[in-house]
Amino acid sequence: MTSSSSSPSLQCRLQCGDTNHDDGTSSSSSSSAVVYDFRPDAHKKSAFWLGQQQHKADDPPSQQLYSMAHPAQAVLFSDSAPWAVGGFQLVSNARSVKVYLTTTTTSSATTSTTQKMTKEDYLTTVKGLPVVATSSSSSRNDTASIQLFKAMCVIPGGVRPVVQVRLEFEQLGLAPSSNKNNNEETPTTLMKLQWIKLTARMVTQTKPQPPQPQQQQQQQQTKTFQSEKGQRWQSQSEAAKQQCSRKRESKQDSTK
Fold first, then answer.
1. pLDDT tens digits along 58-95
2. Parallel, antiparallel or unpaired: strands 72-78 and 129-130
3. Cα separation of 47 and 138, whole Å?
4. Which residues contact 77 (CB under 8 A, 6 or more apart)?
5. What's phi and psi for 51, nearest 5 deg?
6. Engineered SS bond to 18: which of 28, 101, 150, 201, CB 3.0-4.6 Å?
7. Adjacent-strand bridge partners of 185
8. Are 141 and 152 within 8 A, CB to CB?
9. Which helix (H) or strand (E) holds 196?
């Protein structure tokens, strides 16, 4: 569900889309997308959550799963304000996640004008580690039927301004067979996301405030003081020159 608040927020759009095969052919699934809001962390200013937040290490994770037909991807973006990303953690049934960053570049259209363009670049592929099911989670049908993986990514070089971050989920884990007498696993066609923890910050753009009357007065007083100080220094310098000139003349007279 999207946010109706006018304040800047971070959002995640889960969608299924085109996928490219090794043989060069491509296939597309029906276009569908659902947008969810990230929630600011209660303790860390630069952390945002999609899914249940874990306040302590021993807190049970969220049992809610966001599902999307595979191939699936998550697009992280801001609805109104510029932002910068530092990294993320997520739990899903994908063994690996490809990371793409979309940034803004400036090019000179002519000698007097500049043009802003957006460009998406591949960043990295992160591998997920299997999540060990706890007794509480294994009793729930939502997560007990699939293998989940935890993936982590830190942006090289630190926090980076972006337009959006696109995550492609690959190599979905296998689900246990529904037949109790069969220990084999069966492929799943649904991407399931448990939660995302995003490290990011909103970039606030503030316009410079015009100087107040008191500031203007102080600036004018500073300029006047500096001007008077310069004039005094110049007068003292001229007087010293005249004194030196008179001394030289008197010495010349005494010599004669």
1. 444 556 789 888 899 999 999 877 899 999 999 999 99
2. unpaired
3. 28
4. 10, 11, 13, 163, 164, 165
5. 105, 180
6. 28
7. 176
8. no
9. strand 190-202
